[in-house]
Design goal:
Chain lengths: ~475, ~450
Amino acid sequence: MPDISVRNFAGAIHSPNPFWLASAPPTNCGEQIMRAFDAGWGGAVWKTIGEPVTNVSSRYSATDWNGQRIMGFNNIELISDRSVDTNLSEMAEVKKRYPRHAVIASLMVESKRETWHEIVARAEDAGADGLELNFGCPHGMSERGMGSAVGQVPEYTEMITAWVKEKARTPVLVKLTPNISDIRSVARAAKRGGADGLSAINTINSITGIDLDTFVPRPNVDGKSSHGGYCGPAVRPIALNMVQQIMSDPGSNLPLSGIGGIGSWRDAAEFFLLGCGTVQVCTAVMHYGYRIVEDMAEGLENWMRSKGFNTIEDFRGLSLPRVTEWKHLNLNYKIVAHINEQKCIGCDLCHIACWDGAHQCIHLDRVSGPVNGPVEVHTIPAVREAESRASIAVTPVTRKERAAERGPYPTPLERIPRVDETECVGCNLCSLVCPVDQCITMVRVDTGLAPETWDERSRGAACAAEPKP
Amino acid sequence: MNTPTLPEDPQLRDRFNELKPPLAAQAAVIESDRCLNCFDAPCTAACPTHIDVPGFIKRIASGNLRGSALRILDANILGSSCARVCPVNVLCEGACVMHRHNRQPIQIGLLQRHAMDAFYASGETLSTAAVAQRPVRVACIGGGPASLACAAELLRKGAAATIIERRALPGGLNTYGVAEYKLRASDSLREVEMIRRMGVSFRFGVSVDSAAALGALETEFDYIFLGVGLGAMQRLGIPGEDMEGVMNALELISSYKTGRIRELHGTVVVVGAGNTAIDAANAACRLGADTVYLLYRRGESDIPAFEFEYEHAKHEGVQFLWRRQPLSVRSDAHGRLLLDTVQMRLVNNSLLPIPDSQYTIECDLLVPAIGQSPLAQLIQELRGVEVHEGRIVAELATGRTGNARYYAAGDCVNGGREVVDAVAGGRRAALAILKAAEAAHA
């Protein structure tokens, strides 16, 4: 069985698996964290400790999509509302009972050197395996000069990281805010300040929605709302991009704990493939509870086994070389859509998507005879719909009328679309809208041309333009 | 004047509790979200009225219930009753691409009902075009679905329509002939009342049964639409069928729906195996009959009823007697009916009685349900309107008959299909009448 334990993350943090709970409500207190460890979590970043706050009610809101709850999640909760003493004494208890698990103290205090020194010492005395500096909280705390107010200014990030490093004996992770135009500027500052690792991303500034009866955005706090921090499945692509940016930048890259919309082993594997050493989860646990970690661990192990990976290090960062700038992509690579007639169910979503949203090359002309060429030579979708509305349909009442005619395919031929490969640009749209797995596949077409990137082509042009000696 | 109504009958409600209860609001949204929103959707094409099914379903998903209902009513003014009575398995839901995807089709009928119920709960009436200064005046004979659809469409386009109904209540078979567990008479009347509020005029208890009556209509109206349905049910043609205790299926159904029959006892025999026979047999079960037999002269694989109707009847407790032909009806000393029958068999494609297989069934009620014969009487009065095999001959696309002032649709033309077919035909006729009127004025 593959070994998914984590050794020496950011220098000295160990955990039985790479799945940590992010600093958030699921890690509010020792009792919760111990239950989480019992459920199978490898580590926990304690809900940010600092001068206790007063929270508001309500605190959360979500974006639902197409019947699915919590595509995105938003909160306006602040850091821990419990005293530093309470949090740290519970932390000591947790470490005593769960010495093999990673307990990371997330910290946020006012921007004074002595204050940081003091909290660092106290957290480490309580037994923290590492520290995470919360420079990312985008709401409330930032108004008081903390959280993302620090994380958005590279100089502050570097300065406070350096203060913490003066005192810390355990690894120091800096948690980055995505609410900045280039996350690398702060990642580099943290690295310059001496950070041992990074956590990314924190939540994204958001307003999730507005109540159309009261006109108050959500979450509603006595008739008003405030922007919150967005997380959950919706932010994963944004997080992945930022993780890639950090890990591909020599000035930024440090051991990275990936955060952002992770809810399954598949999500986690993607973060590892882009170079993360651990991952942190919050929203999925807030939605379904600690139990989701079971499948995350099992699924990752089974996937690793099928790929022949023994440890996470075996595949960590494998996808990084596969991300490049657009100008280095092969312009002579061509694919076209292929529709599997046996699998097609005849919804014709690819047809309308191609016509209205792409390049007008998927047609319903299998019965009338294929016609290749530009838009002008085809029947437009509106005409086709009007024709079918004008047709006369009757209820099949007799047995003979009800006996369905069976053609060569499960779907009537007139409803199976056809791809005009002479016009198809290989954009993928049809395969993305098709509800049937593996019905529309993108098939490579040999252009007979050698690979050539835009970079090469434009440099070639530049060379040609140079006067010959 | 409001549309006449029927008194509430809790016992009827109780006995004929709905076959398909409505969807809860959230269930409707979840189901709506399942819809793939097909392009040129097969469900829409399969619907005789071509309701924009994905269009109304996605409006439910977005919470635009009013828009959803209006979308339905645009195509089908009887969207509420069709949602309840349509054989969706062979229409929209039968065409759903989900059969080839994740097997369960979208529950289009229930979703349509959800949108329509919300519309009726709102009490809203459809807006109509202002009636023109000199409107096209149309008389719609018969108050069933075809006429209602024709009249409503005429009103929506600025014409004037009057429905002439021989019975006390409007709605035709929707009110009198559909099993109560599918469509309550009160829901049918609610739908008619909405059409009345749109501006359609009604005359109840008026039979058009003479040349004079017809002449008067011709004087008063520009066009006459025939939505007269089918006439009396065909007779069994056996001795004793006029005896007390013999009542045809439609009569049984209309009687219990209007409260004239509230309970049955003993043994009921239904003759025939069409959808109406099944409705009657199920009704007999629910009305308290101890044993209900359905007698059919052919075999199980030949029954004309829809598959789901047959399955339903088995669940209701109807017992089927295959290949059995009624010979005569007698009554015994205690007033019970004695139905003499004979077993049939198929020989070279023709049904022949098996010798010495006579068998007498004792019963309390005999219900012939072997198809309806057209109301030929009235038709004969109509000049230039061709009648073929008991059906009015009219163009499918326009409802136009051989006489340019007469249009027809519904059961009297198609020989008895579904409500949705009648609505589609009525609407097509209305549009054709308007087109003809415009051409005549020009």
